């Protein structure tokens, strides 16, 4: 099961076509209501994927939205960025961060805003955010250890469940039924969704992102984020950030999306000496406190992992 550092580039466009096939992108039914992305974000994502895209042109797109400009400047001027002189414009921030990193930052932030603004009758917003960030940090730590793309692992994991608050609110009766299963009858949430709707939240988010023109690598990470250990059997994905995203998707959360997730993580630990659940959980808790010092997480990941082990 062990993975290694990727030695060849992944053709994400081809992989997206392979994973999605000829299926209609309109997976979500009309009764699911979604907000529109800010025009500046959709323009930025589209232009950022053009071969001739430059920081000057992209900066002009971002400057149309004060919030996006502020986000880029805050990120690039933070102490963690390592830059001594502060950037003063969106163009300068993009030049320092890089176009791809800037695109992932903006898309991740927008989907976070989308999740925070979504009300749910089933999901506790604070707990959902904490577990979402934990998975993203876990994916990034794992990608770092396995020599994979840390930025993509974090972004892919952070946005994978973006539709869960909306779906659990607008189809609350179905998801309450899912949560009502006892331990013996528990099933994976994606499998439950497939049976109830004919699609699951991973597919729905991935096809939505594809329609929005999000980059293929991010789309693929979202689409496979509940593949679990199965992803390690895919020679084209096991040495990519998508593997880290899928492994992080096995972590326990309030919705019990993966009832056997911890057991699967333990089996991976036995197969790969570089994979230590407790050690990774401790790193996640540390990075969580550093990233969100104002949020007190009463149930840190390491404590939950030890209690469930």
Question: Explain this structure to me?
Answer:
By secondary structure, the protein is mainly α. It has one domain: Orthogonal Bundle (Hypothetical protein af1432), CATH 1.10.3210. It has 17 helices and no strands.
Descriptive tags:
single chain, 309 residues, mainly alpha, Hypothetical protein af1432, 0% strand, globular
Compose a concise summary of this entry:
The chain is mainly alpha-helical and 309 residues long.
How many helices? The count is 17
Name of the CATH first level: Mainly Alpha
CATH architecture: Orthogonal Bundle
Principal-axes shape call: globular
Name the CATH superfamily classification: Hypothetical protein af1432
Overall residue-averaged pLDDT value? 89
Derived structural class: mainly alpha
Query: Roughly how many Å is the radius of gyration?
Result: 19 Å
Poorly predicted regions: 1-8
Terminal CA distance: 21 Å
């Amino acid at each position: 099961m062990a993975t290694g550092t990727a030695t060849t580039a992944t053709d994400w466009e081809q992989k997206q076509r392979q994973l999605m096939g000829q299926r209609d992108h309109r997976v979500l039914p009309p009764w699911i209501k979604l907000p529109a992305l800010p025009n500046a974000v959709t323009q930025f994502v589209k232009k950022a994927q053009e071969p001739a895209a430059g920081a000057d042109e992209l900066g002009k797109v971002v400057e149309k939205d004060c919030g996006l400009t502020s986000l880029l400047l805050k990120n690039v001027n933070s102490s963690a960025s390592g830059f001594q002189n502060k950037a003063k414009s969106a163009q300068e921030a993009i030049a320092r961060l890089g176009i791809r990193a800037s695109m992932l930052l903006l898309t991740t932030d927008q989907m976070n805003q989308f999740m925070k603004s979504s009300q749910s009758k089933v999901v506790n917003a604070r707990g959902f955010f904490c577990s979402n960030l934990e998975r993203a940090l876990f994916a990034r730590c794992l990608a770092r250890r396995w020599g994979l793309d840390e930025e993509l692992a974090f972004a892919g994991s952070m946005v994978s469940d973006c539709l869960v608050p909306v779906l659990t609110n607008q189809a609350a009766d179905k998801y309450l039924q899912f949560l009502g299963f006892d331990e013996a009858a528990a099933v994976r949430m994606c499998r439950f969704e497939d049976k109830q709707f004919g699609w699951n939240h991973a597919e729905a988010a991935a096809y939505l992102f594809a329609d929005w023109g999000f980059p293929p690598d991010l789309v693929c990470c979202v689409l496979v984020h509940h593949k679990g250990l199965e992803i390690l059997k895919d020679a084209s994905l096991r040495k990519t950030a998508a593997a880290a995203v899928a492994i992080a998707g096995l972590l326990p959360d309030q919705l019990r999306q993966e009832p056997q997730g911890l057991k699967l993580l333990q089996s991976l630990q036995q197969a790969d000496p570089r994979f230590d659940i407790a050690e990774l959980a401790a790193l996640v808790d540390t990075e969580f406190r550093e990233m969100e010092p104002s949020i007190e997480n009463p149930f840190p990941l390491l404590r939950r992992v030890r209690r469930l082990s």
